[in-house]
Amino acid sequence: MVTGEARRGIRVADLSYPKELAEKLRSTLDYHNFVLTKYLGVDAVDFRQTLDDALAFGEYVEPMKFDVAGILHDVVEDTSITLAELQAEFGEEVARLVAAVSEQKTEGTEPLPWKVRKEAQLRKLGHADRHIAAIKTADALHNLQATLCDLKRRGPQVWTHFRASQSEQLWYYRSLLEVLTQRLGDHPLLTELSDALAALQEQAP
After folding, report:
1. How far is the C-alpha of 13 from the C-alpha of 17, rounded, in Å?
2. Which parts of the chain register pLDDT below 70?
3. 14 with 21: CB under 8 angstroms?
């Protein structure tokens, strides 16, 4: 039988919080070292060395939280998984980044109109930090590139699968590029986003 004690461990999210990590690691090692020394007759795992190794690894993976947030924001928008669940699994900072780039798609139980959602997102991004703006830029670039690929394969019928018209989509991406440029300046991703938007506008009648 697997007990709750057997599932003790450290999550990747814990690596961002040294004090909490040390407390959790101490508790975990107290349990496992008792088993190692009393039952198995082997040396205990050194707390200090393990903590130092974990903190060093935490510094290594720290930049990856932005990649994680970029991937997970669609999870919050399109599934029943909540920000609280993401925070428990991936940490407070990832949850903050995901919240910042995610749209509010409903008001209570009622779905919000497409343009209302986009206008609200543009206002929110107008106050975003550079990390949030970069994540949103990468997301928008991916979406534009995917749309361009679909247009090349399937033609104008692609637009019928969106909740908004072609002209509305172009308005949104032009507005988005303007807001993100204000937040990021001359970030290289913006050049790619601008080029992708120009290519999409060439497809307009």
Report:
1. 8
2. 1-8, 13, 205
3. yes
Map tokens 């303007």 to a residue.
Answer: 178
Q: Are 157 and 203 in contact (CB under 8 A)?
A: no
User: Tokens at residue 85, please?
Assistant: 């669940």
Which H or E run includes 151?
Answer: helix 130-154
Instruction: Give the whole-angstrom CA distance, residue 54 versus residue 51.
Output: 5
The DSSP symbol for 156 reads G
Question: Measured in whole angstroms, how far is the alpha carbon of residue 152 from the centre of its chain?
Answer: 29
Residues found in the chain:
205
3-class DSSP state for residue 46?
coil
- Give me the residue label for tokens 């995610």: 102
Give CA torsion, residues 47, 48, 52, 54, to 10 deg: 10
**pTM greater than 0.90:** no
Instruction: Supply the pLDDT for residue 8.
Output: 58
Q: What is the pLDDT of residues 3-38, one digit of tens each?
A: 444 445 777 767 777 888 899 899 989 988 999 999
